[in-house]
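Me: I'm a chemist; would you kindly supply a protein sequence with its structure tokens?

Assistant:
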Amino acid sequence: MVYEYEGKNEKEAIEKAAAELGLERDQFDVEIIESQKNTLFKKGYVKIRVQPVGVAEHTNAEFEGKVPAQNTVHNVITNPLPQDEFEQKLTEFVQEMVTKMGYEVAVEVMFREDKKIGIKLTSSASSILIGRKGKNLDAMQLLANVYAGRLGHEDVRVILDTENYRIRHEESLVHLAYTTADKVRSSRSSILLEPMNPFERRLIHTTLNDIPDVETKSEGEGLYKQVRVIYKGI
């Protein structure tokens, strides 16, 4: 099930969701679908869409609507070798998946955090594994998360990366957000960005959330919606 909540800011909206659903913060995914700052005549607000996490409880079709949360800052020094049976089976699954695609790959643990594990892929075919706009990497990551759920670790998020694509992609999205804000400010109009997955859209929303004369809004249906960046003045 998907729920929507609204608050004066993202924190308040998330706290409302947690209280009403009776869930901890790490038990649901959050997508910002609309954000507006305070103005002289209108109060600011943030509207979020919430989806409870539980891979084992969803069908594959339902799981396709959720992109595991990602984080580019990992301060944990990690032994790259699997440390238990779960990590061993997970890395073997990823290795076999890429091998069956016809590419050689080295798989190792990139980081370990609470309920999250990063897997690094090293391959001469990295560009193919990433795919157009990261869609191949996202698809493999989805399968890895489904497999982790089948191993009884549905509460663990699996992040796949190669050639630091995740970090580079996030940096490019932040740059896109600021560039688009400058354009709508100059033209005093709005710009509709290309379709993005929930994680990408949330990054655009949060990047521009503190710019007083610009607001953002998600438009469309399905997993890949578009973000409209709107000039609203001060």
User: Anything to note?
Assistant: Strands lie at 3-7, 28-36, 45-52, 106-113, 116-122, 157-161, 190-192, 214-219, 226-231.
